[in-house]
Amino acid sequence: MVVFCFDTLVSHYNSEDAPPPAFDEGQHPLFVTWKKVVNGGEPRLRGCIGTLEARWLINGFRDYSLNSALRDRRFPPIQAKELPSLECTVSILTDYETANHYLDWEVGKHGLIIEFTDPDNNTKRNATYLPEVAAHEGWTKTEAIDSLMRKSGYNGTITESLRKRVRLTRYQSTLFTMNYSEYVAYVKATRGATPSIDGGHGAKPGNH
Questions:
Q1: How far is Cα 50 from Cα 48, in angstroms, rounded to an integer?
Q2: Looking at the predicted structure, is the pLDDT value of residue 203 above 60?
Q3: Residue 172 burial (CB < 10 Å; 0-12/13-18/19+)?
Q4: How many CB atoms sit inside 10 A of residue 54's CB?
Q5: Is the confidence at residue 126, as pLDDT, over 50?
Q6: Could you tell me the sign of the dihedral formed by the alpha carbons of 66, 72, 76, 82, in that order?
Q7: φ, ψ of residue 110 in degrees (nearest 5)
Q8: What is the mean pLDDT of the chain?
């Protein structure tokens, strides 16, 4: 699935169709996350977009691999020259459950969807974090909930009373991760050729 996401992005830069995927069709909510490794450091988020509603996997990964790479408004679009430093993670979301209260989940195991009514203007607000986010940030459960409330656009005071009114859905995910070097090695082993970018964008394999 990660290979297909890389294929889709490379094919976008080459203005051609991606090779057919090597996984079976199915329907699941999904996310595609791109990170960039700079100077051998910790991979930094470069784009992450997905859907909490079930999508056919092939079209879903085709759409969201490009949306997360090119249309995440938090970041400028990923350029072809960045390919050698990219890492891609796909997340397939499963096991949706309604939590009993805002602390009824496990850090590192559950992703979160919160829904609540903004007490200042009666607006419905919602936001989600994938299961790995809270653990990566080192947050407590309460810190994760408070951060999600800010992510939803709520700027008012966060009180214990408001937290208790949050409707929480928890879910789990299956992750697949691959960096560009691994992708190039896979393509070379299975297709007998290495991927390349037309037009001299500086992402030729062998430079990584």
A1: 7
A2: no
A3: middle
A4: 13
A5: yes
A6: negative
A7: -105, 140
A8: 92
Q: Is the pLDDT of residue 201 over 60?
A: no
Q: What pTM was computed for the model? A: 0.83
DSSP 8-class letter at 2: H
pLDDT tens figures, 146-188 = 999 999 999 999 999 999 999 999 999 999 999 999 999 999 9
C-beta of residue 125 within 8 angstroms of C-beta of residue 154: yes
d(CA 201, CA 13): 9
Spatial CA neighbour of 131 closest among 155, 107, 150, 158: 107
Percent of the chain with pLDDT over 90: 87
Q: From CA 13, how far away is CA 66, in angstroms rounded?
A: 11
Q: Take residue 155 and report the two structure tokens written for it.
A: 């700027």
According to DSSP, residue 193 is labeled S
Three-class secondary structure of residue 12 per DSSP: helix
For the stretch 16-44, pLDDT in tens is 999 999 888 999 999 999 999 988 888 99
The string of DSSP codes covering 122-163 is --EEEEEE-HHHHHHHT--HHHHHHHHHHHTT--S---HHHH
Q: Is 75 exposed, middle or buried (0-12, 13-18, 19+ CB in 10 A)?
A: middle
Phi and psi at residue 122, in whole multiples of 5°? 65, 20
Domains annotated for the chain, with CATH where assigned, are: 2-94+173-191 (3.30.700.20), 95-171 (3.30.1490.150)
- Residue 179, SS3 per DSSP: strand
